[in-house]
Amino acid sequence: MKASKILERLQTVRTAGPEDPDITGLVYDSRKAGPGTLFVCIVGTNSDSHRFLPQVFESGAAAVLVEKGHMPEGLKIPEHVAVYETEDTRLGLALASAAWFGYPAEQIPVIGVTGTKGKTTTTYMIRSILDHAGHKTGLIGTIEAIIGDQRIPSANTTPESYVVQKDLRAMIDAGCDCAVMEVSSQALKMHRTDGILFEIGVFTNISPDHIGPNEHSSFEEYMECKGRLFRQCRLGIVNIDDPHAADVLAGHTCEVETYGIRSEKADLRAVHIEHVARPGYLGMSFDVTGSMPLHVELDLPGLFSVYNALTAIACCEHFGIPADAIRSALKSAKVKGRIEPVPVSDRFTLMIDYAHNAMALESLLTTLRDYGPKRIVCVFGCGGNRARARRFEMGETAGRLADFTIITSDNPRFEDPQAILGDIVTGIRKTEGRYITIEDRKEAIRYAITHGEEGDVIVLAGKGHEDYQEIRGVKHPMDERVLIREILDEEALR
Predict the structure, then answer these.
(1) Under the phi-then-psi rule, with left for phi > 0, alpha for psi from -120 to 50, and beta for the rest, what region is 285?
(2) What is 444-478 written as a DSSP string?
(3) Partners of residue 113 on adjacent β-strands
(4) pLDDT tens digits, 21-73
(5) 73 Cβ contact list (under 8 Å, min separation 6)
(6) Is the CB of residue 300 less than 8 Å from the CB of residue 275?
(7) In terms of pTM, does the model score above 0.90?
(8) What are the φ and ψ backbone dihedral angles of 44, each rounded to 5 degrees?
(9) Residue 237: strand pairing partners
């Protein structure tokens, strides 16, 4: 492809080299630069890839895209290399990637979901409904990318723009006729979804999160970044109950529809909401009024599950999917590691959830309390080499809201697991909550199961969809579902 074609939607100035070279590959990792490639220099938080330009030149690259003001002084540029300069190379990578892969987002409708909570579950609900109705839906998100029959574990909620465009192209090649993806605030800030005009943009909710060094400088900036989605979609579907909905929509250029529970102004509203509980089962039941009237039953607990389902209904309504198909798909919709029920006993309920900070844990435990369990038993730990304050906060949250807490190991990484457990204990001791510490996670789960009482709800928090435990730089296989099966088999032999 000609360089001019790759850069056709980007404002650039050619400062050196041939006028319009042929390009054999688009790369942003200097180790992948080679003969004929166009290398995009990225200014990162901890590194600036402009410093690797000498190695890129030696590789035989045909062109480089540099950010204005970042070209190293005195750098000798080979005659065969075209140098293009632009204001923001992250934006440049996004637009160049869209061109390189033939603008896939213009060939299938793409739904983007943003919000502090609910993105993962909502995207899976949308995919479940669309597929149930005969569509073939690709997905990009926190857990994985789903491309046809292929499932690829994810490293980020929203991957780099090149990967997003590559995945969208692969979806089309695999026969997908629509795509749904999680769109994080960081992705919007770093232009990872630029070059995509979303068919539908979704806002679930917002609360203070991801604010600090290397993330967002303030809650206001966090909201503004979320709001960028509604300047690059045709239709915005928004949770009108969220107090910051209007702030997130500020400056929107799309049509807007709303959903909610409390607001009577919502275009789509859930009413007659009931919590459904029986041994080993927690769910929700509600009616939908407005543009898509129907009765819904969910095999997922909590009011937030109702909000997620409303979002999915509001999106899929625009694909002409009938009420019966929506109802059936939602009844069977489940997400690995998101309030995921695991059948263990008809005496108590066991669930796995990804809650790995105090805010998520509080939401989870408060939701479970709505079902009137005899006890809430919470099994959790905290990751090493992460913010130490999280340990105190989660300990205090569990102490306040759970009846009994089993403190265990999560991903200790390069820290001493006992030191992490000690920090959590410091937090829980600020409350009157009862607890025990069992470092080995399998033994902690065994204790919870073997000491489960009639009417208990036991929740394993923090690992969710993860199937490993990271210790001293090594990821050891550890899936809580496997651990539970092993425990049940071992206990049956005793």
Answers:
(1) beta
(2) HHHHHHHT--TT-EEEEES-TT--EEEETTEEEE-
(3) 182, 202
(4) 999 999 999 999 999 999 999 998 778 999 999 999 999 999 999 999 999 98
(5) none
(6) no
(7) yes
(8) -95, 180
(9) 202, 257
